[in-house]
Specification:
It is a single chain. This protein is of the alpha/beta class. The protein contains eight helices and four strands; from the N terminus they run E-H-E-H-E-H-E-H-H-H-H-H. The protein folds into two domains: 124 residues, Resolvase, N-terminal catalytic domain (Rossmann fold, 3-Layer(aba) Sandwich); 54 residues, no CATH class. Helices cover 50% and strands 10% of the residues. The longest helix is centred in the middle third of the chain and has 38 residues.
Length: 210
């Protein structure tokens, strides 16, 4: 019979975020780096390459270690479904570093302990989902307030130099090149054409670089 293995799963929501803290926690927990699966992708669903690869190699009796319960997913249903799939369908154990009370490897856990685990898991999933809802609501309210005060649009609009239209029209008429106009206005190419577009000016770029 093959020896049971212990795997780790770590995740951050974007490529810009760092996995080092979770990786260190796994190594301190005794997990070999080759047995740690890592995703840099949102937990909004379970369509994560390394997570799916992990579930393919996870066998009955193995142990999956996660830093916190929300590494399995971001919403209540996904967390519950993934927990059930790993523990009940695959037959593996789960250990949560930040909340050992949820560890299914506790052999002394009686029936009441499993019931308590289910209640805690349900509560944590619900709280995590509600917190994301509140964050989105606060963001939406902030944007609505900014728009009402006229700040949101202004923050995204570039202030055009006073002589922008004059120099742009000269460039369009062939009196100078757009490149020369950019230099006089002290604007880069992207900003130059963005302002022209916002002002409704023709953005024919044929003369750039002439």
């Amino acid at each position: 019979m093959a020896e049971n293995k212990k795997f780790g799963y770590i995740r951050v929501s974007s490529k810009e975020q760092n996995l080092d803290r979770q990786l260190q926690a796994m190594q301190e927990y005794g997990i070999n780096e080759r047995d740690i699966f890592a995703d840099k992708k949102s937990g909004k669903d379970t369509d994560r390459p390394q997570y799916q690869a992990l579930k393919q190699v996870l066998r009955s009796g193995d142990v999956l270690v996660i830093k916190s319960i929300d590494r399995l997913g971001r919403n209540y249903d996904d967390i519950k479904n993934e927990w059930n799939d790993i523990v009940n369908n695959i037959g593996a154990n789960l250990e949560v570093i930040d909340m050992p009370v949820l560890n299914t490897t506790n052999k002394d856990m009686a029936l009441m302990g499993k019931v308590v685990t289910d209640v805690i898991l349900t509560l944590l999933g619900y709280v995590a989902e509600q917190e994301r809802t509140f964050i989105k609501q606060r963001q939406r309210e902030g944007i609505d307030i900014a728009k009402a005060q006229g700040k949101f649009a202004k923050a995204n609009k570039i202030q055009a130099p006073e002589n922008f239209k004059e120099l742009f029209k000269k460039s369009a008429n062939g009196e100078m090149t757009h490149t020369q106009a950019m230099k006089q206005l002290n604007l880069n190419k992207t900003t130059y054409y963005r302002i022209a577009k916002e002002l409704g000016l023709s953005t024919n770029k044929r003369q750039v670089g002439k």
